[in-house]
């Protein structure tokens, strides 16, 4: 089975070590990605990917964290995936879209379990992480504690693998801020804090 990946070297290096009998083809441009016509599946792991995939008939897993399938007018072979750093490595993937028999076959080859979630910005887990990060920035803005102490408290108190500021660094403040900004359009609870807005602006 051939699978084409559009992304950076770090993402490809993780993917190439998983799955059975898979030939991974890594590309770093959309032109190269679309030129591979005979693959069994395609992964566009760039941040907030929003290509026109209509020329591809096979399953396409796209890292569209903000725009929904409906917003992008994607076909039924396009599946949104949470491919934020740290999430692709998980055994259970959140997917939005129609998970066809072909797509299930790809996921089985990758030894990935999956859960289908509504076609909404941020899926489920990314919404939660983004809100936790935002609350940590609110606490920092109010001088509750330092970044380091907040990270330590969250890891020890909740057994999280990373503290909120560590998560933000790993994911990228711009991606977190953009998701919060999109979610806040319909739910004011996600309104970005002044601290994360400033951190995003300084990037």
Molecular structure report:
The protein is of the alpha/beta class and 203 residues long. The chain has two domains: 2-116, 3-Layer(aba) Sandwich (Rossmann fold), CATH 3.40.50; 125-201, Orthogonal Bundle (N-(1-d-carboxylethyl)-l-norvaline Dehydrogenase, domain 2). It has nine helices and seven strands; from the N terminus they run βαβαββαββαβααααα. The chain has helices at 9-15, 30-35, 69-72, 101-109, 125-141, 147-158, 164-171, 173-184, 194-201, and strands spanning 2-6, 23-27, 41-44, 60-62, 78-81, 92-96, 113-116. It has a seven-stranded mixed sheet with strand order 2-1-3-4-5-6-7. Strand 6 (92-96), helix 4 (101-109) and strand 7 form a beta-alpha-beta unit. Helix 5 (125-141) packs across helix 8 (173-184). The longest helix has 17 residues, at 125-141. The N and C termini lie far apart (39 Å). The mean pLDDT is 92.
Give the count of structural domains.
Answer: 2
The fraction of residues in strands falls at: 5-15%
Range of helix content: 40-55%
Strand order, largest beta sheet: 2-1-3-4-5-6-7
What form results from the Cα inertia axes?
A: globular
Write the layout of secondary structure elements.
Blueprint: E1 2-6, H1 9-15, E2 23-27, H2 30-35, E3 41-44, E4 60-62, H3 69-72, E5 78-81, E6 92-96, H4 101-109, E7 113-116, H5 125-141, H6 147-158, H7 164-171, H8 173-184, H9 194-201
